[in-house]
Amino acid sequence: MALYLRIVSYLRPYLGVFVVSVLATSIFAALDAFSLALLIPFLRTLFASQEDVDVAPPDGDPLGGNGEADLMQRLMDGTVGRFVDLGAPPSEAIQGIILFILVIFLVKNVFDFLRNYLVAWIEQAVTRDLRNEVYDHLVDLDLGFFGRTRVGQIVSRLTHDVEQLRTLVTKELARIISSVLEFMAAFTLMLLISWKLTLVSIVVLPGVFAIWGPLLRRVRRGDRTILNMAGEVNSHLQETLSGIRLVKSSGAEDHERKRFRRLTWGYFKAFIRTERFRALSHPITEMVGALGTVVILWYGTRLVLTGGEIGGEEFIGFLALSMKLYSPVKYLGKLPAIIQPGLVASERVFEFLDAPVEIREREGARSFSGVRDAIEFRDVSFAYSDGDHVRGEEVLKDISFRSPAGTVTALVGPSGAGKTTLVDLLGRFYEPTRGQVLIDGEDLQAFSMDSLRTNLGMVSQETVLFHDTVRSNIAYGIEDRVTEEEIHRAAAAANASEFIDRLPRGYDTVVGERGTQLSGGQRQRIAIARAILRDPPILILDEATSALDSQSEQLVQRAIERLLSGRTVFVIAHRLSTVQKADRILVMESGRIVQRGTHTELLEEGGLYGRLHALQFADDGAPA
Q: pLDDT by residue (tens digit) across 476-534?
């Protein structure tokens, strides 16, 4: 029940519009059933002889039948009888009835249009709100969440699952209400014709709802498997497209085709297995409806031919209404299977919405403006976690050092030593498992995350550019706060203005997805221009030149030298030649700092730094 209430809660902002749609649906359902009831005066007038017209029925029974027929006659007299003279000659009365039926259909379809339009409006509004809520929560989640969740699963839940949930919240809910109202309208008119025949007609209905237990459990499990498999297909597709250069350069097209076919085959089997049970809903409800119709035909003919309780025209009208009655019953009977994809999708979407934001801003956190004294790591240890549980051994172990303001601290060591994880703690992308990271003697938690990250510049080996213009990529996140002149100055300082001016549309050139229209050196210079424009007091360079050719590296290196001025800098590098001028070098291995000092001091000390230095210079063909 809690799940249903949470799903329906998304209608709250649009409750007024939803109420209007329900009213329109109510009027439509009433007119739809009433249009079938109009068969009764039409058939009576059509088949009546002149003698029947002249002969009045017994007192107190205008139709010559029972009390229910009397109620139906009063309804007709109060509606169609107000506009059509039913006592007129048959040809005139029939023309009036036909015209009245036409007007009823016109009004009915006006309300049908209104309800469909309002439901569609609510559908799209709810879809927009759902996607916005999921997206807003996703961008607030910590890097740890994205480290343990495949991107394809995230995209699948934000698109396909939200679409399923939208259908459940709006479209199916509207159909449920419409079916209930249509059932009530038809049922009421059937009671007015004959309460005995009405009771007989519904005796088979409980059977529709009694057969769904086992099927429902199987369909629910199957729908979750289907949605999970859809996420895996999306994940594989995204991974293949992201690494298409590697796929082609490795001649691995057939390998990827086989992997993709295994996933699509698994999805196919899961879908067909679940659909087999869902498909049983239609024939079962169809047979129950057919059984109900047979019972009505058998018992109704007895009332007409032997008991004389209702006339032939009333029985035909009753049959038409019973068809209208069984239509919503069929839908409601299939409803448990129909709504299962939406329920499972809602569970998957809510799993994301309920994923906790593990790194929260402390109440009363103040704005961070820069480093005055020093950045200090004090006995810091860190291990990745799966939500509430630590995953694996510690990546950082008892890290302690101090970087004075305005100095350059280099982090070197083999891959997997924990260098990138260490600088990630500076932006509070992760929180230390133990220990503290302090700026000017205060824990990072004393500062608001927005101000802290705004004042933190990062230039990494894998430059992130968006499918947007050069201008927008340089001014990313602050485009509304900088001038065109400031953007041009930042590009010039990053040695980027020369190649930007040669682009087809200059600063208005779209760089392509992930900057594919630019070379590696050009992408790096755009990233440096972005950092220069933001003018951050803390700068992190993570292998910023390792993937560049010599000419590009020289241009980028000169731009970096301008960027370093007056900032507190952390440089991660495998090439030791790029960190020789650092004020302090920290040598890391297996999550620990094993050496620290200047380039000269570490060479004299030997150890890991000396071995790395000797190995690199030997590889370069120079004496160690």
A: 888 888 889 989 988 888 888 888 888 888 888 888 777 778 887 888 888 888 888 88
- Residues sharing a CB contact under 8 Å with residue 434, sequence separation 6 or more, in sequence order: 379, 380, 381
Q: What angle do CA 176, 182, 188 make, to 5 degrees?
A: 135
- Alpha-carbon distance of 441 to 373, in angstroms, equals 8
Question: What's the rounded Cα separation, in Å, for the pair 312 and 43?
Answer: 9
Say if CB 371 and CB 568 are below 8 A apart. Answer: yes
Backbone φ and ψ for 239, nearest 5 degrees, come out as -65, -40
Q: Report which of 136, 138, 130 is spatially closest to residue 165, judged by C-alpha positions.
A: 130
- SS3 state of residue 380: strand
Round to whole Å and give the CA distance between 203 and 60.
Answer: 31
Q: Is 565 helix (H, G, I), strand (E, B) or coil?
A: coil
* pLDDT at 385 (0 to 100): 73
Neighbouring residues of 538: CB distance < 8 A, sequence distance ≥ 6: 371, 375, 426, 455, 456, 457, 567, 568, 569, 570
Q: Which two tokens stand for residue 279?
A: 């498909």
Edge-to-edge strand list for the sheet holding 396-404:
396-404, 374-382, 434-439, 442-443
Note whether 320 and 39 are within 8 A (CB): yes
Q: Strand 538-542 vs strand 568-572: parallel, antiparallel, or unpaired?
A: parallel
Give the containing element (helix H, strand E) for 124.
helix 90-140
Task: Give residue 240's identity as a one-letter amino acid code.
Answer: T
Cα–Cα nearest to 474, from 444, 441, 511, 446: 511
How far apart CA 614 and CA 149 sit, in angstroms, is 40
Quick check: helix, strand or coil at residue 69? helix
The Cα–Cα gap between 283 and 158 comes to: 34
Give the full edge-to-edge strand order of the sheet including 456-460.
456-460, 538-542, 568-572, 408-412, 584-589, 592-597
Give the other-Cβ count within 10 Å of 278's Cβ. Answer: 20
Mean pLDDT (the chain) is 79
What is the three-state SS of 156-202? HHHHHHHHHHHHHHHHHHHHHHHHHHHHHHHHHHHHHHCHHHHHHHH
With CA atoms as reference, report the closest residue to 438 among 408, 405, 393, 390: 405
Q: What does the DSSP 8-state code read for residue 622?
A: S
User: For residue 447, what is the DSSP state?
Assistant: B
- Give the Cα separation of 157 and 594 in Å (integer): 44
Q: What is the reported pTM?
A: 0.65
Q: Are 28 and 111 in contact (CB under 8 A)?
A: yes
